[in-house]
Design goal:
It contains twelve helices and nine strands. By secondary structure, the protein is an alpha+beta fold. A four-stranded antiparallel sheet has the order 2-3-7-6, with no helix packed on it. Helix 1 runs parallel beside helix 4, helix 4 crosses helix 8 and helix 10 packs antiparallel against helix 12. It starts with a helix and ends with a helix.
């Protein structure tokens, strides 16, 4: 359910001010310390950022997809480390519950996710299975009224401090002796669950990932998401559709911030007696970036509206993710070039953004996976129409 127009505008204005006044000034500190200040997390809770997309009946704001996209445009104008604090609670860490959870599971977890009391994590990727989600090696064996999970998940965002993991594992049934993917809700502290050391990454300092290890980890049968064995792959794909739109919107926000910073620098930086913004080759880079960011914004908004109408947007969401993540990489590269030597220096933050955006082309489905998904859907639709 969408918010009333005036309430949504108040929310957007509040988020815009929060980003500009509270988050942007802390970007360098967060990157240097590789840690999120506790007071910033608390302010995020008070603003309701942990429950943006969680239904109102469970204490969230219940934004529809278009509203979420508009808010994410604003959040994209600062370091992605800030978004990662509450991003999983709104996206891949909660939407499986929202879409497919039982009433008991929803009432148990969603209110606490909406307030930020619980931090969620989406445990799909493995050492041997990332883009190929159908090749999971983590297993879940039924043992009486429990399941026993064994395996390792890798590069799991927010895992170091997550309270609730949505874990995907292979289960065997009489109908599928080879195994089907099932989703489980596993709480921190479950016997047999342990965490690896925090990963050292190329960028996005302040956002943490690590391995999640299951060694005969026992969970109750009631932990099966939705109560249905073998439905995990379907849940994951539905969740990723929304997640890809969210990431696409964030890429747009980051691109627009980089363009503004590049334009401001070009207008004040002088060479040969005039601002470099007067040079046509600089203008060409600014114009290309503006046009590509505008195209991505239009794509994301149109796809969000289609999703809100109940249409299947798997192909379009993949198009958005592919284009927007590649686009922001090009914009960041041009931003470094426009800034010249200053763009390579830490104090301007451009080099940090250049490293940060590189991850968008990889997670929630690499560019190559989006290409395969788009083409396969095109072929399937053409065959059905023949």
């Amino acid at each position: 359910m969408a918010l009333e127009a005036d309430l949504f505008e108040q929310l957007r204005d509040t988020v815009r001010r929060f980003v500009r006044e509270r988050l942007v000034p802390r970007e360098a500190d967060v990157a240097r310390m590789d840690r999120m200040p506790a007071e910033i997390k608390q302010e995020m809770r008070e603003l309701g950022l942990f429950g943006l997309s969680i239904p109102q009946e469970y204490g969230g704001l219940g934004l529809d997809m278009e509203e979420e996209v508009h808010i994410t445009f604003e959040l994209g104008r600062t370091s992605p480390a800030f978004r990662s604090v509450f991003g999983t609670n709104n996206g891949i860490g909660s939407q499986g519950l929202v879409m497919d959870g039982t009433d008991i599971q929803k009432s148990s977890y969603l209110p606490r996710l909406a307030t930020g009391e619980l931090i969620s994590s989406f445990a799909l990727t493995e050492p041997e299975a990332g883009s190929d989600a159908g090749s999971l090696r983590t297993t879940a064996r039924r043992d009486g009224e429990e399941y026993v999970l064994s395996g390792t998940k890798r590069f799991i965002t927010n895992a170091p401090y997550a309270d609730l993991f949505t874990v995907f594992a292979r289960t065997e049934t009489a109908q599928k002796p080879g195994g089907a993917v099932t989703a489980f809700l596993v709480e921190r502290g479950a016997p047999g669950l342990s965490l690896g050391k925090i990963d050292k990454k190329m960028g996005q300092a302040g956002s943490h990932t690590c391995d999640v290890i299951f060694e005969d980890c026992r969970v109750p049968a009631a932990a099966v998401l939705g109560g249905e064995v073998g439905q995990g792959f379907r849940t994951a794909m539905k969740v990723l559709d929304r997640g890809r739109l969210h990431i696409s919107a964030f890429c747009v926000g980051m691109a627009e911030r980089l363009i503004e910073d590049s334009l401001a620098y070009a207008m004040q930086r002088k060479q040969f007696g005039q601002p470099i913004a007067e040079f046509q080759l600089i203008q060409a880079m600014l114009a290309d970036s503006k046009a590509e960011a505008y195209a991505a914004r239009c794509m994301v908004l149109e796809t969000a509206r289609s999703k809100d109408r109940g249409e299947n947007v798997s192909t379009e969401a993949a198009c958005c993710k592919m284009f927007a993540s590649e686009m922001v990489g090009r914009v960041a590269d041009r931003a470094v070039q426009i800034h010249g030597g200053a763009g390579y220096m830490e104090e301007y933050g451009i080099e940090r953004a250049y490293r940060d955006v590189r991850l968008f082309r990889i997670y929630e489905g690499t560019t190559q996976i989006q290409q395969i998904l788009i083409a396969r859907n095109m072929i399937k639709e053409a065959a059905a129409a023949a």
